[in-house]
């Protein structure tokens, strides 16, 4: 049980990141003008992300039901009458809609409208995620907390989810062109600062009222510190590749692979961190 909730959150974060990344790349690529079919590695990852987006909200609900020792008959009341339940509903709806749109094959017949539809429902997942976590419990600055959280998840999805999809696409026979890497790099150059700044904003809301010793004495603070160090390493690696891409070269596969692996560790640390109490609460 101790591992169950963080694993479910990791499933949710991964599914959401891939849905947002796919939506952003699809819209950027102007798919209506024609695109080759996705390589198998991309197709498999999209199906897995769709599965994660269906499983995660159901699993979160079951964990909550067990934690509160509710019977199945009491679950409708949990969804109707509690803040948690009212936060869960939009998350479940947007996750299921994203899961339906995510694995649709990329063909000429697929319109720009469906790419935009995926992006919009995936952004809905990002906005809904804050409804279940610490951001939803911020009584002092509720709107700021939710905005930081939404921007953070959108940035993470576009940057890290998009990077993973570009890496998987490079394994196929029709690897991304220099133009596609250029478009991704320009998008990531906006999204990485969004992630860092919104992360600073969320850090202020979660630990801003505690001193450094109290922060570092808590599990929350230790995981946050680890996460920040790793996130800065991912950013630095991305920065080195940005110059290569600007010069018309594809990025180094080894560096991109390392970036994606480190980002996965950041997601795992976050999944753990969001289940612990920030200092002073
Ligand atoms: C590769 C970089 C990063 C990734 C992949 C990442 C990922 C995430 C994810 C998925 C969440 C959960 C959002 C939610 O549950 O609604 C989150 C929350 C958070 N992140 Fe990040 N993040 C990154 C960088 C950063 C940085 C640089 C900071 C600090 C400067 C930061 C601080 C936070 C904080 C404070 C939260 C709120 C956790 C809570 O509500 O208790 N993150 N991050």
What does this structure look like?
The protein is mainly alpha-helical. The chain has a single domain, classed as Formate dehydrogenase/DMSO reductase fold. 75% of the residues lie in helices and 0% in strands. It is built from 10 helices and no strands. Helix 1 packs antiparallel against helix 2 and helix 1 packs across helix 10. The site of protoporphyrin IX containing FE (HEM) has 28 residues, from helix 6, helix 7, helix 9 and helix 10.
Characteristics:
281 residues, Formate dehydrogenase/DMSO reductase fold, binds protoporphyrin IX containing FE, single chain, mainly alpha, 75% helix
Draw up the topology in text.
Elements: H1 4-28, H2 40-67, H3 75-81, H4 83-101, H5 112-129, H6 142-170, H7 178-207, H8 212-217, H9 219-246, H10 253-273
Bound molecules: protoporphyrin IX containing FE.
Residues 13, 129-130, 133-135, 149, 152-153, 156, 160, 195-196, 199-200, 202-203, 206, 224, 227-228, 231, 234, 263, 266-267, 270, 274 line the site of protoporphyrin IX containing FE (HEM).
Topology-level CATH name: Formate dehydrogenase/DMSO reductase fold
* Rounded mean pLDDT score: 93
Helix content: over 70%
Please provide the ordered H/E string of secondary-structure elements: HHHHHHHHHH
Radius of gyration: 19 Å
Q: Report the top-level CATH class.
A: Mainly Alpha
The number of distinct β-strands equals 0
So what's the overall shape?
A: globular
pLDDT under 50 segments (min length 5)? none
Please report which band the strand proportion falls in: under 5%, 5-15%, 15-25%, 25-35%, 35-45% or over 45%: under 5%
* Secondary structure category: mainly alpha
- The number of helical elements comes to 10
């Amino acid at each position: 049980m101790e591992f169950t909730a963080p694993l479910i959150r990791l499933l949710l974060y991964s599914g959401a990141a891939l849905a947002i990344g796919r939506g952003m790349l699809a819209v950027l690529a102007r798919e209506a003008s024609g695109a080759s079919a996705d390589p198998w590695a991309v197709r498999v990852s999209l199906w897995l992300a769709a599965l994660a987006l269906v499983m995660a909200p159901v699993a979160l609900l079951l964990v909550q039901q067990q934690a509160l020792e509710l019977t199945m008959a009491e679950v409708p009341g949990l969804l109707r009458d509690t803040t948690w339940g009212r936060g869960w509903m939009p998350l479940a709806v947007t996750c299921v809609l994203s899961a339906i749109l995510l694995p649709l094959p990329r063909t000429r017949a697929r319109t720009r409208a469906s790419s935009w539809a995926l992006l919009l429902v995936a952004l809905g997942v990002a906005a809904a995620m804050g409804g279940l976590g610490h951001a939803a419990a911020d009584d002092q600055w509720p709107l700021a907390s939710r905005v930081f959280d939404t921007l953070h998840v959108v940035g993470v999805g576009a940057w890290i989810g998009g990077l993973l999809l570009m890496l998987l696409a490079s394994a196929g026979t029709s690897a991304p062109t220099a133009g596609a890497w250029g478009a991704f790099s320009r998008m990531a150059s906006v999204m990485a600062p969004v992630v860092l700044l919104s992360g600073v904003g969320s850090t202020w809301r979660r630990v801003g009222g505690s001193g450094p010793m109290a922060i570092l004495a808590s599990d929350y603070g230790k995981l946050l510190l680890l996460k920040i160090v790793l996130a800065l390493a991912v950013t630095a690696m991305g920065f080195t590749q940005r110059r290569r891409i600007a010069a018309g070269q594809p990025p180094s596969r080894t560096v991109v692979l390392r970036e994606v692996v480190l980002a996965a560790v950041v997601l795992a640390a976050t999944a753990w961190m969001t289940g612990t109490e920030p200092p002073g609460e």
